[in-house]
Amino acid sequence: MAKLPVSIDKIIEQFGPSLNYAPKDGFTGRDEPDEVVNTHCCFCGMQCGIKLLVKENKVVGFDPWMEFPFNEGRLCPKGVQRYLQNNHPDRILNPLQRVEGKGFEPISWDSAMDKTITEIKRIQEKYGKDAFSMLSGVSLTNEKSYLVGKFARVALKTKNLDYNGRLCMVSAGAGNKKAFGLDRASNNYSDLEYAEVIIVAGANISETFPTLTHWIWKARDRGAKLIVIDPRVIPLARTADIHLDVKPGTDSALYGAMLKYLVDNDMLDHDFIDNYTSGFQDTIDAVKDYTLEWAEEITGIQKEKIKAAAELWGKAKTSFLLHARGIEHHSKGVDNVLGCINLVLATGRIGKPYCGYGTITGQGNGQGGREHGHKCDQLPGNRDIENPEHRKYISEVWGIDEKDLPGKGLSAYEIIEAIHRGEIKGLLSICFNPLVSLPNSNYVREALEKLEYYVCIDFFLNETARHADIILAGSLQEEEEGTTTSAEGRVIRIRQAVTPPGDARTDTSIILELAERLGVKDKFTYDNSETIFNELRVASKGGTADYYGITYKRIEDNMGVFWPCPSEDHPGTPRLWEDKKFKTPDGKAHFNPAPYKLPGEVTDEAYPITLTTGRVVSQYLSGTQTRRIGKLVDQFPEPLLEIHPEMAEKYNIKQRELVKVSTRRGEGIFPANIVETIRKDTVFIPYHWPGQKSANLLTPGTLDPISKIPEFKVSACKLEPLNEIAPLGTESKAYASI
Amino acid sequence: MSNYTTFNRNEEFFVDMQRCIGCKACEMACAECETNGHDSMIHVNYVERSTTIQTTVQVCMHCEDPVCANVCPADAISKDEFGIVHTANTERCIGCSNCVMACPFGVPKKIEEYDLMMKCTMCYDRTSVGKKPMCATVCPSGALFYGTKEEIKEMRPNSSPVNTFVFGKEVVNTKVNIMMPKGSTELIIY
Ligand code: SF4
Ligand code: SF4
Ligand code: SF4
């Protein structure tokens, strides 16, 4: 509840973030490991295979897992260092309660649970079931995502459950559903290798999904042409054939103009369009005025470059289009995604070898976590919570009356808004750090301060958890068995390497005990993760995300199985749509008009510069885990304001000078990094940091009307140099800041 | 000891700067080796971050005729039968830094803390038991690769491995290859 119990400095002293450079007993203590566990990285959607070295129930190091087919041992710096989060000094080892003026003090599990249940009941009796909400995260395994979805609906009986995928790739999910009726990247990444042309749109692959770079370079070695669409010259763009430095917020104008060019020059697959798609005419009507000249004006990309890109794309025989948050984090994220899909459909290059399309999920289980029902509008198997048949099926699986199954609730940012308005009074969160990851942080903080009760399940005291009344000490990825689904759609096994330290418990056991104390023990009887997975399989059966044929054993035997996999004798589906039978009501792939619209906020005299945000290679999301690992912090200790030399000159900003960046929502102070690799009208700040160094102090809460994703990628800002050169990154207090 | 190794003589080290994304996974993984005292023996540098995102990565080239060993007054640096130039022998190294100055690639580093020269040993603790070096294994972009000439030929049809470097009049042949445009045979460094 409410304000912090003591000063931030005091909380940091006790719970960090502090930096860990070595395993608990030092490097010398690690000798020969007791056990080597084949599992997966706990960070991004690549879900790279990794071996964890375990000694005396501690993860003490790693070894590359050469046999795992996607990454063959390759890892990025986050993967290399991830073992240091285990037995980290900041780890929460007991349940904690907030004590005014004192901070957080350990309490027994019994009291923590009692208090939580009492508060849930009090709030729900007084204000109604939906006044208690839940926020979940997609670093959770499939089993936990499923469990959370069921727990919120069956135990808490609230409709207000949403997840942090809402900040990730929901625009892509919504676009995929509209176009294909199913939400998954269409191919496994090995199809990239022989593609003739690859478009990478708004995806800083080399920093955010580094091990995917290898597959792109592989294609380059085979002569593939690479088109990178990004306002910055990201490392991948270095060798690109064409770099389209699009002005943030104008992506759909670019795709529209490319589509018009394909139509005007008849670079279309008529057979595919006529037989397997619908909506083509409306879609091209929507772009009939989108000339190259017009697009140059809107996007700021020279028309010759747009033309060259359209030519390359139009003439290819095989191709791959990948996108990520750069086009999805917009108030028209769904339109951007549909614009991309239209280019793919117009050329009919889908469902064939070396042809593909997909979003790259940022979070570890960004794919699986969006299928099992912890979204506000969704039931397991990617079913629709408003569809009577879907409701009936899941109610039966869960053994409840359909009328007791809540309907569609609010999305993540809308939950914060409802807390602000006083409609939602209680919150349970797991694995979500909204104070850093949601836009408009000042507003989010105010909302947290209004809660009557906030309970949080987590393993580190992240910035949001500092506002909690009770913290239930949960588990790291390596402390529980389970599965995740990588960005390619491959369902893989997460292995338990160690048990939770101290008095911490597995997330699963915490949720099960809460369910029991809420009086629904009979609906939550599981022996282990595998029994949860087996129920998930049944719940997903017949849904679009069908996992029914996938078993723990099959995953193990095959190093992963691709969904959909409807029966145990089904091989799984690495490449979708080979049969050209799409999951839409008419069985066709749908073109969707995606006309260009203005972003939620445009620059003006008061705020003349476009600000966009993104990531750096050594940090992961809100930094709860990575801002605690020494070398990852040293590599990029603080967020820098990337600014073009011409803009720097105009505002008289020097290298590493502190600059106050303000928007209509707030202001932050960042050292300048003057680089030629960014558009002249745009500045960039990575978003992994809290407090005064948070990019999300600045970003707006404008939501995409369909996907409800916030528009992180476009804000109007102004800059004021502060006449002070920042001390070197490692010396500044970046990682100990608010 | 060498009788007991399973060092694969056909496997070599290939470096492809074009691919490097500057992520530093190699540096961090190198420091995981027990033999390095948890310092990295590979170094990633930005060429000039203000104008480019090009990075370069420098690993020991394991020269056929290693200048670092030749100039060492204490005979602390040795090259073994597999062509690996080892880190200075702790007992002999006098920390004079001759090797640091002499290496044309700028590889050996004097680690002040131990008063000792340290350098990449091509992960001898791993390669001698049939594993691949840490940095090459983890490199997410394939900028570093450890394997056979045949594998690299198949994987990179548009590049040629080069292990002859010309520094003025000096020609240096190395055990480590740099990937160059197809058909290249030497790299001339002015
Ligand atoms: S963060 Fe992503 S790319 Fe890096 S090792 Fe983990 S899964 Fe692989
Ligand atoms: S080969 Fe081994 S010792 Fe040499 S730089 Fe690579 S990881 Fe370090
Ligand atoms: S791991 Fe590979 S890509 Fe990353 S910095 Fe090292 S050489 Fe470059």
Overview of the molecule:
The complex is a heterodimer of chains A (738) and B (190). Chain A is an alpha/beta fold and 738 residues long. Chain A contains 23 helices and 28 strands. In chain A, helix 4 packs parallel to helix 19 (507-517), helix 8 (251-264) runs antiparallel to helix 11 and helix 11 (292-299) crosses helix 12. Chain A is globular. Chain B has 190 residues and is α/β, with parallel strands linked by helices. In chain B, 17% of the residues lie in helices and 25% in strands. In chain B, the strands form 3 sheets. Chain B has a 5-stranded mixed β-sheet with strand order 6-1-8-7-9. In chain B, strands 2-3 form a two-stranded antiparallel ribbon. Chain B has a two-stranded antiparallel ribbon with strand order 4-5. In chain B, strand 7 (159-167) and strand 8 form a beta hairpin. The termini of chain B are far apart. The model of chain B has no long low-confidence stretch (mean pLDDT 89). The interface between A and B is large, with 44 and 34 residues. Bound molecules: iron/sulfur cluster (SF4) (3 copies).
The major β-sheet of chain B equals: 5 strands, mixed
Average the pLDDT over all residues of chain B and give the rounded result: 89
What characteristic shape of chain A results from the CA principal axes?
globular
Tertiary shape of chain B: globular
Mean pLDDT value of chain A: 95
Query: What structural class should be given to the helix and strand makeup of chain B?
Result: alpha/beta
Oligomer: heterodimer
Count, helices of chain A: 23
Unreliable sequence segments of chain B: none
Largest pleated sheet of chain A: 7 strands, mixed
Q: Biggest sheet of chain A: strands side by side, in what order?
A: 5-4-18-17-16-6-7
Q: Indicate the proportion of strand residues of chain B.
A: 25-35%
What is the radius of gyration of chain A? 24 Å
The beta-strand count of chain A equals: 28
The percentage helix of chain B is 10-25%
